[in-house]
Write a structure and sequence with these properties.
The structure holds three protein chains of three kinds. By secondary structure, chain A is an alpha+beta fold. Chain A is built from eight helices and 22 strands. Chain A folds into two domains: about 220 residues, Rossmann fold, CATH 3.40.50.300; about 130 residues, Nucleic acid-binding proteins (OB fold (Dihydrolipoamide Acetyltransferase, E2P)), CATH 2.40.50. In chain A, the strands form five sheets. Chain A has a six-stranded mixed β-sheet, sandwiched between helices. By secondary structure, chain C is mainly α. Classes of the chains: A alpha+beta, B alpha+beta, C mainly alpha. Chains A and B meet through helix 5, helix 6, helix 7 and strand 17 of A and helix 5, helix 6, helix 7, strand 16 and strand 17 of B.
């Protein structure tokens, strides 16, 4: 096991820069998810670490070993692909054991132990003597995970392993992965475009965009403290709301007519946007302190019986999540009705030209515990 | 505006029945989502409506007129197929203009209307490009533009967002809803994703294994379904469905998580029932109240604003959603005290799957033998 | 460094193999610029003053013009007819999937697998009975017929790769079948069409047996000319052979060179999917 240090790593395809001089450390023994929209370079970065893609520039080190020019088979990496790559003629145990058999330093007992451990954690006990052909796609992918983990390679890589399995099987795989993590510590780089998967599995998420890592943080922190509008938008279902901010008299600012008093004036108020996640917006039928009038444009049932309400506030559109409630209207105002919304400033983040303002000046007297600067 | 009515539509292929006597009215000028698991027949039903396939039996009526013999091109239906199907040898402009070019619309009018649709869908800068130069989301926008530029009052979108990035789906759903409002046309939206169906739909049609399960306004289908299969298929995360033993005289039913008071609506046929408890009906107990039981966490899916928690209680796994704010970090194997919101869960007959009543309160006693 | 050396060795080996295969062609092209004694000289002469006498003599011969024209006309006409027919057949097989499609496709291919010499007698008898021997039109049709099965196979693979959603988009918007086939499907399978054209062109261009047996003075092509005029005055006429062969290999090379971009895709037999 080792950490992975990439330095100035670049990959160019013709005029397209897929990975732009990335310098980053994947810590030893942690799961780092590379998350981002398609085409952000996450798979290219992973393939360069694996040795399947040659970097155009930069270095890759596993611990103190420079592996930049080594071919994949000499790097000591294990990899799980989108489709399970299996030895078709072997059974489950043999599939997991085969890569270990090449390792002369392993005793037979140790080999057995690792295979049994993988099989037990992944709950493949009933299938251990079954031929691979008799397993479905999800179970095969589990075997592939088991094989990669049993290797105890310096680095274990996952390239969107759940993309091709159906929803329920995906849960089984994710659960197996979580269970595995409780027993085995390995350096894992996991590529996915699915934010739920990343937030569920990762110790830390490296959010990528246009060939660069824009932010790296533990899932909760990445969600609560995005350092860019992109991060706020990309994570969450739906993503963060953004409102354009106008300067106010004295200190503070105005969002669509609502004054937000601050302790100190903002240093610059051009191109500043106010970001707030849908779950923090309160919707009421009567005016509340600091509320703004809004009109309900749409509503839909969302995750776990919540309502996703689309509101017109001034000239902007925002989305709010209303928790499930009982009663005939279920706590949700009708489409077309006029309501009042509160955007609590302690849950808001200010962005300047897409980047988070270093620190949001607090409102006078606000407790604002939820928005500790990162 | 055409009223569409399916009457006893069946479709069978050599060895399989794809559709079994579908009777359905489509609300005009609304967005109807047709949802169901893959292979449930929803796409076949749409293909029959479009005229790409003929039904084995039954009639389709437009304003009371049978259109069985009407060629597809005359049906006044715009169609956005599942896999974009943008012609790779034409520019994006020519792709979008294709339906109008076939209808011999004058060149100047075509240009104006393509420009308008491209504006709504944010693809104006792409018109001169080839489809192969577009990203997945841009291709889908171009395909939608082509579908809606036909002069038609019904538009069918066959799983238009399948395979697209999550964030693209979010913004496309918004644009599609705007577009429907602008066109004022009837949209039929096919999807196998229950959350997408709920987000898009004004009316919801639920299909399963070639049959129509239930149809109606989205709120009715979500909150007051008449069939167990509906509640299983509509909603995210999936509903908890527990076998229950019905005690009709005392208006109680016994489940793995306790005895629940119920109100019967249709008179029970047998004592074998199922109780459907949506994830939002399961909560953590308020401080000071005793939990129904303490389960063990088997998985926490982090969705950002909320988490989906899978809790094992003896042999039963229950799914619940918890707002992220309310959730201290939970790990696998942690204890999870359970409570139930009063009211909400629905009781179904086990054999027929028909709704027979509603749970009226929380479990009276926990895990009554 | 080790990798570099290995890579260099691979390349050297590949060059060597290529040169071995190219040597006969090189020899014949070189010979066409030599005199008769120079061609047969031992050891072979590599440096000499090229002569164009062989070509002058060849072009002066009216038989050359006649045979060259026949080769070109037969190949081009037969191939165009074959590909046009095959395209429609492949479209029908791919889209309408008539009963027993797989069996019919197998049957088609099995015709192509039949060795030519096994079919020559019945074909000869048939052509004689119909009075088609030495008829230019009949010869063209024969080549077209013989080219169709393979073309259908190639093209069906390509058309299968074009999603039926394209056709349906056409149908819904009121396109005719002709419009769907010619304007929506055909442009997406150009590589397949080009591959079929080239494969068949090379087959017809090289064909000797049938031309010799069921053709005649009106239809004979360059391979027949080569065979019949090879022996002159008791020996092989090497100057004639080398100059005619050199000209003979130019058209196929030109065709392959011009279309190689498509050919490489075509070689994958439709596994490159249409844009979906």
């Amino acid at each position: 096991m080792a950490d992975v240090r990439v330095q100035g790593l670049r990959r160019q395809f013709g005029s397209l820069m897929a990975v732009k001089d990335v310098s980053f450390v994947f810590p030893e023994g942690a799961v780092t998810c590379l998350l981002g929209p398609s085409g952000c370079g996450k798979t290219t970065l992973l393939r360069m670490i694996a040795g399947l893609e040659r970097p155009s520039a930069g270095t890759i080190r596993f611990g103190d070993r420079d592996v930049t020019t080594l071919p994949a088979r000499r790097r000591d990496v294990a990899m799980v692909f989108q489709y399970p790559v299996m030895y078709r003629t072997l059974n489950v145990v043999e599939n997991i054991e085969l890569p270990l058999a090449n390792d002369r330093t392993l005793t037979v007992a140790e080999r057995r132990r690792r295979v049994d451990e993988a099989i037990e954690i992944l709950e493949l006990g009933d299938a251990r003597r079954l031929h691979i052909d008799r397993l479905n796609l999800a179970a095969r992918q589990k075997v592939a995970v088991g094989r990669a983990i049993a290797r105890r390679a310096a680095v274990t890589l996952f390239d969107e392993p759940t993309t091709n399995v159906e929803v329920h099987a995906k849960l089984v795989l994710i659960r197996a992965f979580k269970e595995l993590r409780r027993h085995v510590r390995q350096t894992i780089v996991y590529v996915t475009h699915d934010q739920t998967e990343a937030m569920t599995l990762a110790d830390q998420i490296a959010l990528m965009r246009d060939g660069e890592i824009v932010q790296c943080a533990p899932p909760r922190e990445l969600y609560d403290q995005p350092n860019s509008e992109f991060g706020g938008w990309f994570l969450g279902n739906p993503g963060m709301n953004f409102l354009t901010v106008q300067p106010a008299e004295g200190s503070g600012f105005v969002v669509d007519g609502v004054p937000f008093p601050l302790a100190a004036p903002l240093p610059e108020l051009e191109n500043v946007r106010f970001g707030i996640r849908p779950e923090y917006i309160r919707v009421a039928t009567t005016p509340l302190p600091d509320s703004v009038p809004a009109r309900v444009l749409r509503r839909a049932v969302a995750i776990g019986g919540q309502h996703l309400v689309t509101l017109a506030v001034g000239g902007s559109r925002i989305k709010a999540k209303v928790p499930p409630a009982e009663g005939p209207s279920r706590g949700v105002p009708e489409v077309g009705s006029n309501v009042f919304v509160v955007c609590p400033i302690e849950h808001a983040i200010l962005f300047h030209r897409g980047k988070r303002l270093a620190e949001l000046p607090r409102r006078v007297g606000s407790s604002a515990a939820a928005c500790a600067p990162s | 505006m055409s009223r569409i009515r399916f009457e006893g539509i069946s479709k069978s292929y050599r060895d399989a029945i794809a559709l079994d006597r579908i009777d359905l009215d489509i609300e005009p000028a609304g967005l109807t989502a047709v949802c169901g698991p893959p292979g449930c027949g929803k796409s076949v039903l749409m293909r029959i409506l479009i005229g790409l396939e003929a039904p084995s039996a039954g009639r389709i009526l437009f304003d009371g007129e049978d259109i069985a013999q009407m060629p597809a091109a005359e049906r006044s239906i715009g169609y956005v197929p599942q896999s974009f199907a943008l012609f790779p040898h034409m520019s994006v402009f020519d792709n979008i203009a294709y339906p109008m070019a076939l209808q011999a619309v004058p060149r100047s009018e075509i240009a104006a209307r393509v420009d308008q649709a491209a504006g709504i869908l944010h693809i104006r800068p792409l018109l001169a490009k080839r489809p192969s130069q577009l990203s997945g989301g841009e291709k889908q926008r171009a395909a939608i533009a082509r579908g809606i530029l036909k002069n038609a009052d019904i538009f069918i979108l066959d799983d238009p967002l399948v395979g697209l990035d999550f964030k693209l789906r979010e913004s496309l759903m918004e644009d599609l809803k705007d577009m429907r409002a602008e066109l004022g046309a009837t949209f039929l939206y096919v999807t196998s994703d229950p959350l997408e169906a709920l987000t898009m739909a004004e009316h919801l049609v639920v299909m399963d294994r070639g049959r129509l399960v239930e149809a109606g306004p989205v709120d009715t289908v979500y909150y007051d379904p008449s069939w167990l299969r509906t509640i299983e298929l509509v909603g995210f995360p999936r509903c908890n469905v527990l076998p229950a033993h019905l005690d009709a005289t005392n208006a109680m039913c016994t489940t793995a998580i306790g005895r629940l008071p119920i109100a019967l609506e249709n008179g029970a046929a047998s004592a074998d029932a199922m109780v459907a408890i949506r994830p939002e009906h399961i909560t953590s107990p308020a401080s000071g109240t005793a939990p129904l039981g303490i389960g063990k966490v088997t998985l926490v899916e982090n969705l950002g604003s909320e988490s989906v928690v899978y809790v094992q209680l003896d042999e039963t796994t229950l799914v619940t959603t918890v707002p992220a704010r309310a959730l201290a970090s939970l790990d696998l194997g942690d204890p999870f005290p359970l409570a139930m919101r009063p009211g909400g869960p629905i009781v179904f007959d086990r054999a027929s799957g028909r709704r027979i009543g509603r749970v009226t309160g929380a479990p009276g006693e926990f895990r009554d033998g | 460094m080790n990798e570099r050396i290995r890579e260099g060795l691979y390349h050297a080996l590949l060059w060597l193999v290529s040169l071995v295969f190219f040597a006969p062609v090189f020899w014949i092209v070189l010979s066409s610029f030599k005199t008769g004694p120079q061609i047969l000289a031992v050891p072979p002469i590599l440096f000499f003053r090229p002569t164009f006498d062989n070509y002058a003599k060849l072009f002066a011969d009216p038989a050359f013009e006649h045979h060259f024209f026949n080769s070109i006309a037969l190949s081009v006409l037969a191939v165009l007819i074959a590909v046009a027919v095959s395209f429609l057949a492949a479209f029908a097989f791919s889209r309408f999937r008539p009963a027993a499609t797989n069996f019919l496709m197998f049957l088609l291919l099995s015709i192509r697998m039949l060795p030519g010499s096994a079919a020559i007698l019945p074909v000869y008898l048939m052509y004689v009975a119909f009075g088609w021997k030495d008829s230019f039109v009949a010869m063209t049709l024969f080549y077209a017929m013989f080219s169709i099965p393979f073309s259908v196979w190639i093209l069906k693979g390509f058309i299968d790769g074009v999603s039926p959603r394209f056709d349906e988009t056409g149908i819904v918007n009121g396109a005719s079948w002709f419009g769907i086939i010619a304007r929506l499907t055909l442009p997406q399978v150009y590589p397949g069409v080009v591959a079929a054209l080239i494969f068949n062109f090379i087959f017809v261009w090289n064909e000797f047996l049938f031309n010799y047996i069921i053709g005649g003075i009106n239809t004979s092509n360059i391979p027949v000319l080569l065979a019949t005029n090879l022996s002159q005055g008791g020996g092989i006429d090497w100057t004639f052979l080398s100059s005619l062969t050199t000209i003979y290999i130019v058209p196929p090379i030109l065709v392959v060179y011009l279309f190689q971009r498509y050919l490489l895709v075509g070689m994958t037999f439709g596994t490159v999917r249409g844009e979906v």
